[in-house]
TrEMBL record, chain A:
Keywords: Carboxypeptidase, Cell inner membrane, Cell membrane, Cell shape, Cell wall biogenesis/degradation, Hydrolase, Membrane, Peptidoglycan synthesis, Protease, Transmembrane, Transmembrane helix. It is a single-pass membrane protein. Residues 62-237 form the Penicillin-binding protein dimerisation domain. It comes from Parvularcula dongshanensis. Residues 284-620 form the Penicillin-binding protein transpeptidase domain. GO terms for molecular function: penicillin binding; peptidoglycan L,D-transpeptidase activity; serine-type D-Ala-D-Ala carboxypeptidase activity. This is Penicillin-binding protein 2. PANTHER family: PEPTIDOGLYCAN D,D-TRANSPEPTIDASE, PEPTIDOGLYCAN D,D-TRANSPEPTIDASE MRDA. GO terms for biological process: cell wall organization; peptidoglycan biosynthetic process; proteolysis; regulation of cell shape. It comes from the Bacteria.
UniProtKB/TrEMBL annotation, chain B:
It is found in: Cell inner membrane; Membrane. Pfam families: FTSW_RODA_SPOVE. GO terms for cellular component: cell division site; plasma membrane. The chain crosses the membrane at residues 21-42, 54-72, 77-96, 116-132, 144-162, 168-185, 192-213, 279-301, 313-339, 345-369. It comes from Parvularcula dongshanensis. This is Peptidoglycan glycosyltransferase MrdB. GO terms for molecular function: lipid-linked peptidoglycan transporter activity; peptidoglycan glycosyltransferase activity. It is a multi-pass membrane protein. Peptidoglycan polymerase that is essential for cell wall elongation.
Length: 656, 381
């Protein structure tokens, strides 16, 4: 064998280098092994925890909202099956195309489309984006049927807040909506924030939904899901987490049947407008159970539909609701403050008796009362002649109360008004309660804070207040409370919630209204005369079925309108709708054993006796008919008697 | 006895008898681990990876034996043509190459995708071994003796770098330099080379020769806090998966991190991650042991080879193999930048398999012809 001379040398060097390199490689392998040891043994716990974080996610499960029930357990607010449609961008060929095809079935607004396209940009492609909810069955079925043509469009069934009675109880229940940025800021903790961010979660935005939100909301559940790197849920891990608990139900004092009936009555035509006058219905009514303070009816017409709010109200509808002169978003029974007009005479009458003026005291009415050189006119131009207190109420004589006013102190009248429930709020939980105005010296001083010269109270002002004009205002709720207090002598306070969850809230036992309640007898007798003895509201009588006592009121919306040519004061019949007087009526029944008290206000109704009174009559008839407590003494349903209210069922009496 | 026969006289049967079965066994076990892991990656399915991996390995094994029983003289003779052939393929890449994830690395050969850069690594070692085989030792460190190997290394490195494939470019260069080192390059030049290499990297970075994504991965490696969810996402997720595996692993097909898609490229560059997660420290150290064992077997062959060509060739191949393993495992465990280097024989990929098994075929040839020391040469070229 031939060995080249240099080969031995380079072989030696090769071997040495090979060993060096092998040593280096061994060292590096050792380094990799050490790294493995570090990762898999020493830092194993940390990495195992990180791995769990990676693959397990805690998910919030939105609880079902508690139901709201009426007095008889009828559903007022519930959670109904809701047909929705979602879009999963990654499954569409083209988002635009899928949307366009969907729009052939479900019309979308520009805003909806923009929101969907924005979400497509923002979210991962497998996250479903809600396109529309509240679909009709036909739309839902069509989407299912045409699924092949709609890649990435997925119909879903979920639960959404639903108000079966729509507008009837809207102002009491309020509505729900998705959490806003402000809600998120106000959230007490991170867990709540997380709940707020859930797509299906709604919280109470107004009314009782808002006030009782904590109870109605329920307890959120949780579940643990395994997710992949993109956050897509692979599976739910059983036995980890807990189920959500549905919110507590809320039982209202409202009777939805009567509520619907009342709304229908408020919208009825009672012939108070001449045919050529364009008129609208903007009215409210409150009926209170005078024994318990339960608000049985609280109706505001026109009403809005809270279902519109659940899925996000369209901007145009919101604009219309806000712009309407009929103020459909204003809860008139509690937020509408009206001059009480002659209904306030009951207060003045009580104040007079407390001031020592005997009810038998007579004053003469010639149609005009001169005070400090100014004529104060009675509504009856010819005058009422000589009247005592009871008849003054029956005929609603203004001059009689001008006479009383000259003998009364304004602070005293205000005090009586407050004792009988005016000038205060009752915190019913539906918000927006107006306090109304009961003027007295302190009020005027505060009102003219910046102009001390105007702070003095003038006796002439007391004359206006005595007949419920001037600065006095009251809400229909306050007037109904006043009627209940006049009827019973008890300091009735209204309430809207009878049960919270399992708990039945006992009605409070009311104290007597302070002062001598014997004074009420004359007022009550006067109110009975108003209705049943050919007084101003004779057409509102419920005889022979019941004796209902009441008091009409007509309050000026603007100062007297005169004919521009002749200077003659125009009557309501000659004015456009929006210039007409408000019509009011307060009442209670049965007269000898009062159970229900009510107030009806018809905006621009013209006169209490023509507009508000007859409506109150038809509302009260239904209320009394339905009252099971009247079956013995004030029984209505005699065999063979025809139903007085078509469409109103009485079957639910069994719930009592 | 067959072993005593002069190498020149070996018949086919004799050569087959002289096969190094330990080397074949080690490679087969490593590839089997690849099959098992690829089966797991595919969520317990033979398709699409595991079955094809088996077929490829079997084909590559035939290739290995075929190359192995081919006389070493042939490989010496074919060394330069093979190198230029591989270089030509590399040049073809920018012309007819297929772009994959922003880099042109592949050319289509029929229905196969060929990655010439992988073939180049073996071809370069082959050519350099050929070069030093015919070079007088005293000329190894002579400047003139230095220029040809540097050109041989520089050309493919540059081409691969421009694809751009930083990881393979570094590997190509390192395998070339390792052969130079083994050939006995004086340490002075080694130091100069290291400094020059460092300067080249700095220059490449500063002149923007390195692509943004490569730079991002390197900076992320140097300071993982810079962009924890960005460039270093792969390495972080990989560390979590391996670390959560613990000592005995989560078990076959139980690797949640890998299976749930937290890791990309699980079947190729990051296959060690799922393996480490499912088989734990025991499994991972076992695999590393197999790799190192393979290296030692090859080194043994190299040191027993009587021809300088055989020695350099075998050791060069063995070191290339080891560098793959070290860079890949270092990369998935956050010790090295994420540069896209597969784990040989385990990662799914045909060209790497063919290149590596072909390379070991050359090692096998060196083993069979280990006693042949009189390879006739006509100088370095």
């Amino acid at each position: 064998m031939r060995v080249e001379p240099f080969d031995t040398q380079r072989a030696m060097i090769f071997n040495r280098r090979a060993l060096i390199v092998a040593g280096g490689a061994f060292g590096l392998f050792g380094g990799v092994g050490a790294r493995l040891y570090h990762l898999q043994v020493r830092a194993h716990d940390d990495y195992a925890a990180l791995a769990d974080d990676n693959q397990f996610n805690q998910r919030v499960v939105v609880p079902l909202r508690g139901e709201i029930l009426d007095r008889y357990g009828h559903l007022v607010a519930t959670n109904a099956q809701d047909f929705r449609v979602v879009l999963i961008p990654e499954r569409t060929g083209s988002v635009a195309q899928s949307l366009a095809r969907l729009e052939q079935i479900v019309p979308l607004t520009e805003a909806q489309r923009a929101r969907v396209l924005r979400d497509v940009q923002r979210q991962t492609a497998f996250t479903p984006i809600q396109v529309a909810q509240g679909l009709t069955w036909d739309q839902f079925a069509a989407i299912n049927y045409r699924a092949d043509e709609l890649p990435g469009i997925q119909p879903e069934v979920g639960m959404a807040r639903s108000y079966p009675d729509a507008g009837a109880v809207a102002f009491v229940t309020g509505y729900v909506g998705s959490a806003t940025d402000r809600d998120l800021e106000a959230a007490p903790d991170e867990e709540t924030k997380l709940l707020y961010r859930q797509p299906g979660f709604k919280l109470g935005k107004a009314g009782l939904e808002h006030t009782f939100d904590d109870g109605l909301r329920g307890e959120q559940g949780s579940m643990t899901v395994q997710v992949n790197a993109h956050g897509r849920v692979i599976e739910e891990i059983a036995n980890k987490g807990h189920a959500p608990a549905q919110g507590e139900s809320l039982g209202l004092t409202i009777d939805t049947e009567l509520q619907r009936h009342t709304l229908e009555v408020l919208g009825r035509d009672y012939g108070e407008y001449p045919e050529d006058v364009e008129h609208h219905t903007s009215a409210s009514a409150v009926v209170i159970d005078a024994w318990t303070g339960d608000v049985v009816v609280m109706a505001s017409a026109p009403a809005y539909d809270p279902n519109d709010f659940t899925s996000g109200i369209p901007a145009s509808l919101w604009r219309d609701l806000n712009a309407s002169p009929l103020k459909p978003l204003l809860n008139k029974p509690v937020a509408g403050a009206y001059p009480p007009g002659s209904t306030f005479k009951t207060i003045t009458a009580i104040a007079a008796q407390e001031a020592g003026i005997a009810p038998s005291t007579r004053f003469h009415c010639s149609g005009v009362f001169n005070f400090a050189g100014n004529p104060f006119r009675c509504w009856k131009r010819g005058g009422h002649g000589s009247l005592a207190m009871e008849d003054s109420l029956k005929h609603s004589c203004d001059v009689y109360y001008f006479n009383l006013a000259t003998k009364l102190d304004i602070d005293h009248i205000a005090d009586v008004a407050r004792r009988y429930g005016l000038g205060q709020t009752y915190d019913l939980g539906i918000g927006a309660e107006a306090k109304g105005t009961i003027p007295d010296r302190a009020w005027k001083a505060a009102y003219y804070r910046s102009t001390p010269a105007n702070q003095k109270w003038f006796a002439g002002e007391t004359l206006s207040v005595a007949i419920g004009q001037g600065a006095v205002t009251a809400t229909p709720l306050q007037l109904a409370v006043m009627a209940a207090r006049l009827a019973t002598g008890n300091a009735v306070t209204p309430r809207l919630v009878r049960t919270e969850g399992e708990e039945v809230i006992a009605p409070p036992s009311f104290a007597r209204v302070s002062g001598d309640t014997d004074d009420l007898d004359v007022v009550r007798a006067g109110m009975n005369a108003v209705v049943n003895e050919w007084g101003t509201a004779a057409r509102s009588s419920l005889q022979p079925d019941w004796m209902m006592a009441g008091k009409t009121g007509t309050s000026q919306v603007r100062s007297l309108t005169r004919d521009p040519v002749t200077g003659r004061v125009l009557s309501n019949d000659e004015l456009p709708w929006s210039h007409r007087d408000h019509a009011l009526f307060v009442c209670f029944a049965p007269y000898d054993s009062p159970r229900y008290a009510a107030a009806v206000v018809v905006e621009h109704g013209g006169s209490g006796s023509k507009s508000a009174g007859p409506r109150a009559r038809d509302i009260m008839r239904a209320v009394l008919e339905k009252d099971p407590g009247n079956t013995d003494r004030h029984r209505l349903w005699r065999p063979g008697m025809k139903p007085l209210r078509p469409g109103l069922q009485t079957a639910s009496l069994g719930a009592f | 006895m067959a072993l005593a026969l002069p190498d020149r006289r070996l018949g086919i049967r004799g050569r087959l008898m002289r096969l190094n079965w330990l080397l074949i066994a080690l490679l087969t076990v490593i590839a089997s681990i690849g099959v098992v892991t690829l089966y797991s990656v595919a969520d317990g399915s033979w398709s699409p990876y595991a079955s094809r991996h088996v077929i490829r390995f079997c084909a590559a094994l035939v290739l290995l034996v075929g190359v192995g029983i081919t006389p070493l003289r042939f490989w010496l003779w074919i060394a330069y043509p093979a190198y230029f052939g591989a270089l030509a393929l590399l040049l073809l890449v920018p012309l007819i190459g297929e772009t994959n994830m922003g880099a042109e690395r592949w050319i289509a050969v029929g229905s196969f995708q060929l990655q010439p850069s992988e073939l180049m690594k073996v071809a370069l070692v082959l050519a350099l071994a050929r070069y030093y085989h015919g070079l007088e030792f005293k000329r190894v460190s002579h400047p003139f003796g230095l220029i040809p190997p540097l050109l041989m290394i520089g050309a493919p490195t540059g081409l691969v770098f421009l694809q751009p494939d930083l990881g393979t470019a570094i590997l190509v260069a390192l395998s070339g330099f390792s052969v130079m080192l083994l050939a006995g390059l004086s340490w002075r030049w080694v130091v100069v080379g290291a400094i020059a290499g460092f300067a080249a990297v700095v220059t490449a970075i500063q002149t923007g020769l390195i692509q943004a994504y490569q730079w991002g991965r390197i900076t992320a490696f140097l300071d993982p806090t810079v962009d924890p969810l960005g460039a270093n996402y792969h390495a972080n997720q990989s560390k979590i998966a391996i670390g959560s595996g613990g000592i005995d692993g989560k078990g076959f097909m139980e690797g949640t991190q890998s299976q749930l898609g937290f890791l990309p490229e699980m079947h190729t560059d990051f296959i060690f991650t799922i393996y480490g997660e499912e088989f734990g420290l025991i499994g991972a150290l076992g695999l590393l042991g197999l790799y190192f064992g393979t290296f030692l077997v090859a080194m043994n062959i190299a040191m027993r080879a009587k021809s300088h060509f055989g020695r350099l060739l075998t050791m060069g191949i063995a070191l290339t193999f080891v560098m793959y393993v070290l860079i890949n495992t270092g990369m998935v465990m956050g010790l090295a930048p994420v540069v896209g280097v597969p784990l040989p024989l385990v990662s799914y990929g045909g060209t790497v398999m063919i290149a590596m098994m072909g390379g070991f075929g050359l090692v096998m040839s060196t083993w069979i012809y280990r006693n042949q020391d009189t390879l006739r040469t006509q100088g370095a070229f």
